[in-house]
Amino acid sequence: MNTESENWDLIIEPKSKWYDLRLGEIIRYKDLMFLFVRRDFVALYKQTILGPLWFFIQPIITSITFTVIFGNLAKISTDGLPQVLFYMCGITLWTYFSDTLTKTSDTFTANANIFGKVYFPRLIVPLSVVISNLIKLGVQFSLFILLWVYYLITTNSLHPNAALILVPFLVLLIGFLGLAFGIIISSLTTKYRDLKFLVVFGVQLMMYASPIVYPLSIVPVKYKWLILANPVTSIIETFKYAFLGVGEFNWMHLGYSFGFTVILFVLGLIIFHRVEKSFMDTV
Amino acid sequence: MSNIVLKAENISKQYRLGQLGTGTISHDLNRAWAKLRGKEDPYLKVGDANDRSKSGGSDYVWSLKDINFEVKQGEVLGIIGKNGAGKSTLLKILSQVTTPTTGKVMAKGRIASLLEVGTGFHPDLSGRENIFLNGAILGMSKSEIKSKLDEIIEFSGVAKYLDTPVKRYSSGMTVRLGFAIAAHLEPEILIVDEVLAVGDQEFQDKCIGKMKNVSNSGRTVLFVSHNLGAVQNLCGTCLYLKNGKILESGITSKVIESYLGENRNVQLTGEIPNDFHRQYGTKEAYFRKILIKDLQNNTIDRLAFSQPFKIVLEVEVLKELKNVMININLGTTLGQPILYAVEKEKIGYVSKDLPLGKHKIEVTFDLKLLPGNYSFTLGLNYLANGTTIDWVENVCFIAVDKIGYNKNENYPWDSVHGYIEPETKWIYK
User: Fold this and answer.
1) Coil, strand, or helix at residue B418?
2) In whole angstroms, what is the distance from residue B152 CA to residue B133 CA?
3) pLDDT digits over A70-123, tens only?
4) A121 DSSP 8-state letter
5) Chain centroid to CA B43
């Protein structure tokens, strides 16, 4: 019988073409993705007293801490905006990015026991992380909106504008950026664990290179390109601009972030797919 | 025309020995350099055959080498072999957990693998939630699971605890639930690894029955097990792997016979060769000889029914041993243990000290075996903690005939139930 002419549904080979990412499979396994999301939520707050309230506690405490340290002690400008609101605006979006990045960055090492026993498209796991963090963002975002509406009514320092329609796009963009970094790091850490240590403080450093605790406007012109080279910068800056009406809005900067994300994500997919096939031998 | 649903062509798998770390980068760079020049991967050429008892010079080892086979639709293929023969590696490749180093596998239809039961169970989630999670991990859709939920619960027999977190389950319950989910998968090809080792007899029978149903419904099963009885019972054809290669394939009973026969050449002289497969051991002493003798000291390999016999062993002690015991295990040729014989006094087990050198030990048995085939396994352990010094499995075989040792004491029936005829006393009142 001639095997070449037969129709096989599945061919397992040492190497596949780099563009053959088998993304179609993800759709077949979408139920699994949502079950992972559900598992993360249900399991996270089992045996806690405050339960989902922790969603709120984290951004509130961080915003207060930032207000005290950066606002009152270091006296960093917030472009004349209410400090708590200014910080919370940045923190909400930043937390989404950093949580997505750190939680997807150990996809392979943390799931080695499942991955070693059964096959499903490995990308399901980081995608489920993005979705659960998106839900968490939604909850924290509503807290921000409450505060925002309060200040909108009581003061007239806020100038929300048409850029608000970009918000869903910004959220999507920063989510994919975090995912892209995460899957690349997770792919590289299967063999060399060094990166794992880098992630923790790398993310922290990256926050200071993004306009979270300071407005972009106070960055000296000399260093501005450095901060703008960070693809997160323009996303957060646009986000702030949309809600608060201060900061910079620049299509070119946003375009850079978009391009950066797309390229990094595609690169991430290719690396991730290469690694997922054989990482069990090296993990 | 027979329909081939799974085909493996020249699959090989190479692993790197030892710790990853030192040298990894340099090897990676070397590979990249070779690739850049359009040459072959330099590390693919080296590598020893998969044999754990010898330590080779190379850092790389071929865990599987040039495996070729085909499986037809509805066939149940058993895969047997000793520990480290490459069975699990083969299953891992087939279930896409890892890729082969060379060669390719082609399949028709969905492959679901069951290398472990309850993969991905989350301890904090309830049984019901875990059914959905585990089912989805194994490749079922939510609606598929929903439609089979009642059947799964029924099969698992843990209906009462369905809303209890799985971490409160006993290990047996976890396995039952896990297998119940897997049993209701409906892939075209099902891969099962040694999962029956856990669970009680009743549940094991249930599982084997379920797997038979699966194959009767036209789906294909690949089954790996050390339980030769289960393989015999379930599989039509069988692969025998040794040191990463297929040594024999074909009708199950024949393959099992030659698998067991590997050890049979010991029988003639009683010598246990140095390279006999010794699974564990501290290398402080080795079994060198085993002979079965009748009371006239003739070496035999068949017994008449109720014939007395003795076993003569020779042990070579390389390092002085204190507080050890020798045990003789009798089992069926399919690996089912029947009895465990050790030296015993009135109170407790006897602890022996063995000085350096060769020791000859004669063991007599007061035992009436029913007709059938049996195999002996020898062990030498420390009495205190059970540490194994040497262990030779299925090293010697013996057949018991129906012809009686004493005249007029033949075994009278056609069928044989069980293995041993005990001395009993019957009192009618």
Assistant:
1) coil
2) 14
3) 888 888 888 788 888 999 999 999 999 999 999 999 888 888 888 888 888 899
4) -
5) 32
- ipTM associated with this complex: 0.83
Does residue A15 belong to any structural domain of this protein?
Answer: no
Domain span at residue B322? 266-404
Q: To the nearest 10°, the Cα dihedral for B54, B57, B60, B65?
A: -50
Quickly count: other Cβ atoms within 10 Å of residue B317's Cβ. 19
What are the residues whose beta carbons fall under 8 Å from the beta carbon of A20, sequence distance 6 or more?
A: none
Say if pTM beats, i.e. exceeds, 0.80.
Answer: no
DSSP secondary structure letters along B173-223: HHHHHHHHHHHT---SEEEEESGGGSS-HHHHHHHHHHHHHHHHTT-EEEE
Domain with A190 in it = 24-281
Q: How many domains does chain B have?
A: 2
Q: CB count, 10 Å around CB of A126?
A: 24
First vs last C-alpha separation in chain A? 40
Q: How many domains does chain A contain in total? A: 1
Say if B37 falls within a structural domain. Answer: no
Residue A245 main-chain phi, psi, to 5 deg:
80, 5
Q: Which amino acid is at B133?
A: L
Tell me whether residue B230 is in a domain: yes
Cβ–Cβ < 8 Å for A136, A175: no
Reported as half-sphere exposure (CB side, CA atoms, 13 A), residue B20 has a value of: 14
Inter-chain touch A191–B24, beta carbons under 8 Å: yes
* Through-space distance between the first and last CA atoms of chain B, rounded to whole angstroms: 67
Residues of chain A contacting residue B165, judged by C-beta atoms under 8 Å apart: 46
Helix (H, G, I), strand (E, B) or coil at B4: strand
Sort out which chain B residues have CB atoms less than 8 A from A31's CB and list them.
136, 141-142
CA distance B209 to chain A (A): 23
pLDDT tens digits for B70-104? 998 888 899 988 777 888 888 888 888 888 888 88
**Chain B residues with CB inside 8 Å of A7's CB?**
108
